[in-house]
């Protein structure tokens, strides 16, 4: 009898339930060895003001600990509220063990992909619940796991695939495998909710300079044709008449007119755009001035001119399968004055649907020449940029970090994906580049107040039990980004000013909670309502967070003294006040004020922490 199986303790009903869930699960697609998440107490957060930067309230968070615990807590506070998630997870190359609570298999182990997939799946399932209705997820990865990760994300965010960015991480290497191929690129997989859209790159509207009398809307010359040939769009293959000069213009057989002619419009047919004749009547078609013209009295003369290359160049022979079709086509131009130029039309700036154009999935280097000429591509530095910058920032700290992503890459993605008040999450924070990118964007854009939430493990191990990556690298780098830093070069010291901002430094734990459950409730309530933190004061029954435009209060207990203190506070508040309490009816009667809203503790927070509260 097997006694060491993880299923040995399950009774018959539990085993049947497990098998039925597996039978009902999706069978097509990626398959790996999965582990059921154990039911654990709600995770807890502990605030360390000594490692926090800036004065409270803190609007940004750095969370030390296993990201599985941190994501569980954020599920209580940020569900459906994160606009952008960027992560740079372990690439599963087998070079090092994962410094998390999960099991991990080495490079030679046949189950290494399965273990890594389960490690990622558990976290991605929690993370996707945090995305806003217009939220987006970016995941950096290389060739080793990109195929499996794509299939996994297809399952976690069904129908959410936006695309894959490809970027150049290095300029080449001599350290290559026997195949002698230098793999110089990596990927950023992009998945999103249905409401998401990139900002796009600004269109060049400088060409809209011409003005018509009495119309302040500038215009520029536009193309009257579109990229369809005469066989694909026969109704767009017709002569256009300039009634003022009585000159006719033949269409390009490879690019027919983009506007329909009234002669082909059926009765009752609805058109998405104006007809060619309507544009001509409105004076929006730009006919060539002082154009060269020719007139051919007979079909034979026209054929001879075309064969000799003397007719307008869009008139061609051999466009049709039968002589009858060609004769009908050419007959339209016999006996008419034919122009050699090409008409255009006035495209007004007000008709531009969007002031930006779509971005390309190809990210070019900052020094690549094609990037300077192509207005649809994003640009990023190489990994060397990230290594150099981090080395400068942590020069005096005596610590390092391998292969940090370039700041320009993450800043470019966040700029495209977020607005000035959005929240960005990175739960594989590593060197803290994501926070640096958020701070840099806020500094560049006056009035911007993006927030960041970073989660980083300590990466402690039996070999390095005292290692704390989050404290020594993540926190140190972000702190110097906020406050400024100094590094030395051969030419002398260089002082880099701070970008401004703040962050609270917290530690996440899986539980059971030794921390005061009221403290956990207070942190959760603040993050839900204000997205900012002040510390918990254990000796106070009335927890208070006074923001500029509103206030948040939490009653850990209710008695006459506490209610009297509450009355005085809300009377003097001068702003809207929200009060959370375990006795909502009693408190509502005690503080009946128009600017005061009394709320019971939310159900999910009661379930998470309420059992331990008095």
UniProtKB/TrEMBL annotation:
It comes from the Bacteria. Residues 212-238 are annotated as: Disordered. Residues 212-227 have a biased composition (Basic and acidic residues). InterPro entries: DNA_methylase_N4/N6, DNA_methylase_N6_adenine_CS, N4/N6-MTase_EcoPI_Mod-like, SAM-dependent_MTases_sf. Transmembrane segments: none annotated. GO terms for molecular function: DNA binding; N-methyltransferase activity. It holds the Pfam family N6_N4_Mtase. GO terms for biological process: methylation. Keywords: Methyltransferase, S-adenosyl-L-methionine, Transferase. Residues 82-444 form the DNA methylase N-4/N-6 domain. Belongs to the N(4)/N(6)-methyltransferase family. This is Site-specific DNA-methyltransferase. It comes from Deinococcus radiopugnans ATCC 19172. The lineage of its organism: Bacteria, Thermotogati, Deinococcota, Deinococci, Deinococcales.
